[in-house]
Amino acid sequence: MNIRRPAAIGFYPSSRSELIKIIEKSFLHRLGPGSLPGKKTSERVDRIIGGISPHAGYIYSGPIAAHLYYELSAIKPRTVIILGPSHTGYPGIAVMSEGLWETPLGMVEIDRMLAEKIRVEAGRDPSGHSYIISDAWPHISEHSLEVQIPFLQYIYGDSFKIVPIVCGGVSLEKCLVIGGKLAGIIDWSDTIVIASTDMTHYGSMYYGFAPVGDDDINKILEWMNATDGGIADSIRKLNPEDTYNKAVKTTMCGYIPVTILTTIARALAIRNIRVLKYATSYDVQGSRDAIVGYLSMVFAF
Predict the structure, then answer these.
(1) How many CA atoms lie within 13 A of 106 on its CB side?
(2) DSSP letter at 270?
(3) DSSP label of 138
(4) Buried b vs exposed e over 55-65: b needs ≥16 C-beta within 10 Å?
(5) Measured between alpha carbons, how far is residue 192 from residues 46, 100, 188, 218 in Å?
């Protein structure tokens, strides 16, 4: 059986014990939920169909990601579809259709039947042209999906399967087709979708993107909060078109996964969409040279 080995060591520790420790620190962090999963349940939402989670190194985005996984710990899905952007320049959408994904917390099996169903039924336009292919290669060195898995293993153990889908550069129209079809073919009683993204990447030195300059940190943070907040507002309003069109004007990396998830939510008439936490890497670590926004959201009936 094909085993996809870890490629994101460094984003999180290679040691099982150290990985568990940093995950728990993320939950207990001053910017995290404040408690470990299972300790508070009264505020949780029911019938969750998915969420948005960041994918930077755990020391940066782990506390923000922990907010989503705290919510997800209240449910027990059979399969988790993970949509993540390509950071290696892959131009299309590729599902890894069979095999195992390894992390320091163990192996997770791909839901082969659902992966194939998605490839065949969700990725075709009216003329029969396929948008989604089965290909393991784009997954080999991509971190955006992998960093979600240890959090899932922490809350679910080995009781779940995954469908990993790398989303390269595709049009808004293709996002709408794929999201609409996914909404109709998935059994939402036992399946959820995670859209993996970081928000604005700010700084002229590392990202070549500094619309309000590099000097005034308060001005930068105000701009980032307003810009990323505007995208979050479009998501909450179930407007994938506006989400996509706003995001492409920024350096948000996972706008395609997020647009697909927003399209799914609109097709399902989801009404309980909440921002669980937004913060920047500056809020977490205090570095000013490169600042990245992190967003955690949950979608539920």
Answers:
(1) 13
(2) -
(3) G
(4) bbbbbbbbbbb
(5) 12, 19, 7, 37
Report which secondary-structure segment, H or E, holds 263. helix 255-267
What token pair was written down for 134? 């089965």
Q: Rounded CA gap, 267 and 112, in Å? A: 25
Query: Could you give the CA distance from residue 242 to residue 233 in angstroms, rounded to a whole number?
Result: 10
> Would you state the pLDDT for residue 41?
46
Mean pLDDT of the chain: 95
pTM exceeds cut of 0.85: yes
Q: For residues 52 and 254, what is the distance between their CA atoms, to the nearest angstrom?
A: 10
| Distance in angstroms (rounded) separating the CA atoms of residues 12 and 202 | 23
Task: Please check whether residue 238 is in contact with residue 270, taking contact to mean a CB–CB distance below 8 angstroms.
Answer: yes
Q: How is residue 240 written in tokens?
A: 């994938």
All domains in the chain, ordered by first residue: 3-300 (3.40.830.10)
Provide the H-helix boundaries in 100-216: 112-121, 143-146, 149-156, 172-185
- H or E segment to which residue 222 belongs: helix 217-236
Count of beta carbons in the 10 Å neighbourhood of residue 89: 8
User: Widest CA span of the chain, in angstroms?
Assistant: 53
Supply 236's token pair: 């909450």
| Residues 53 and 136: beta-carbon distance below 8 Å | no
Distance in angstroms (rounded) separating the CA atoms of residues 92 and 22: 33
pLDDT digits (tens, 9 = 90+) for 51-77: 999 999 999 999 999 999 999 999 999
Tokens 């336009």 label which residue? Answer: 125
User: What are the residues facing 81 on neighbouring strands?
Assistant: 163, 193
Beta-carbon count within 10 A of 210 CB: 15
